[in-house]
Amino acid sequence: MSVLIIADHDLGKLSPATARIVHAVAELGPIDVLVVGENAQNVASDAAQLAGVQKVLVAETASTTDTDLAIIETLAQSYRYVVQSAGSVGRDRMPALAARLDLMPVTDIIEILGPNRFVRPIYAGNALQTITDNQPRHILTVRASAFRAAATGNAATIETVESPTASVARLIATHRTESDTPDLSTAQIVVGGGIALGSAENFQLIERLAKKLNAAIGATRAAVDAGYAPNDWQVGQTGKIIAPDLYIAIGISGALQHLAGIQGAKKIVAINSDPEAPLVKLADAALIGDLFEIIPQLIDELDKAGVR
Ligand SMILES: Cc1cc2nc3c(=O)[nH]c(=O)nc-3n(C[C@H](O)[C@H](O)[C@H](O)COP(=O)(O)OP(=O)(O)OC[C@H]3O[C@@H](n4cnc5c(N)ncnc54)[C@H](O)[C@@H]3O)c2cc1C
């Protein structure tokens, strides 16, 4: 009995999250990866390169929830573990799969202690829970940002899996946000902005700095609710969980719900006018002052240093 990882992918590209899940579950057994959905064929060769993968299964479908789930459910019978990243698709799909198989899913795992012992954060990251899962099979979602990516250079075999043709649902259209910045959940550098930016126009300062640093853009819920930043930039308890090497938090107080999303950040730099702000106290380094003076200066200095 081995591990089946459901690959995350979009627009014919494998998400970096999948490489992290492969590394996370390496100790649990031989790993197969299932690429299911539209453009699955294009993604399979990337998945086959991940170290530790023995086989990539490809099921090309029109990617509706019921067709994808039907394939996963059929394949799941042959595996002890079925795992996907705890991103928006995995959070939706894995509990539905578990219900179909009459199993309890274990979600949002940040550490694997043994074949059936898993650690997950609860209470917005304020406590860690260790779960012993005594079920015969395990349906898991894993927080990708908590793990390193598997190496590449492998050449796993690729097999096609038959896809069901009948579906009660039909995909009509997909509306997506275009972005040329790195993926927030797996970016190495994130520049985050808060309500202090004051407007969507001013928020472009954050975007300019992020572009210079090849960083992803994050925002607080206050900034999102005010309409300064789109919803998918929100970081925190009800947003994305990030674990970059560097998080630059600009005009962000550090409310508990925001901190719940940045606990994995290795270094935090806060830019804030209030030296007593919780995020300033938590940060590895802080610049105290007006962000509207500091950020343009920072961008100028990066320009002078030849960072484009
Ligand atoms: C159920 C629930 C879920 C939530 N989920 C989330 C979540 O997922 N993510 C999230 O972020 N929040 C979340 N929140 C909201 C959270 O409680 C805070 O309200 C929010 O994070 C505050 O955002 P902020 O730091 O932008 O604003 P504020 O707390 O108002 O902080 C603004 C900061 O900017 C500084 N500042 C002001 N002007 C300047 C300037 N000119 N230069 C430099 N610094 C300046 C201030 O000193 C202050 O520290 C949630 C709340 C609830 C109740």
Compose a concise summary of this entry.
The protein is an alpha/beta fold and 308 residues long. Helices cover 27% and strands 28% of the residues.
Order of helices and strands: EEEHEHEHEHEEEEEEEHEHEHEHEH
Total beta strand runs: 17
Structural class: alpha/beta
CATH topology of the largest domain: Rossmann fold
CATH C-level category of the largest domain: Alpha Beta
Q: Averaging pLDDT over every residue, what do you get?
A: 93
| Gross CATH architecture of the largest domain | 3-Layer(aba) Sandwich
The hetero molecules present are:
flavin-adenine dinucleotide
Q: Kindly estimate the percentage of residues that lie in beta strands according to DSSP.
A: 25-35%
What does this structure look like?
The relative contact order is 0.12. The strands form four sheets. The protein has a seven-stranded parallel beta sheet, sandwiched between helices. The protein has 308 residues and is of the alpha/beta class. The termini are far apart. It contains nine helices and 17 strands. It folds into two domains: 2-160, HUPs (Rossmann fold, 3-Layer(aba) Sandwich), CATH 3.40.50.620; 189-304, TPP-binding domain (Rossmann fold). The model has no long low-confidence stretch (mean pLDDT 93). The site of flavin-adenine dinucleotide (FAD) has 27 residues, from helix 6, helix 7 and helix 9.
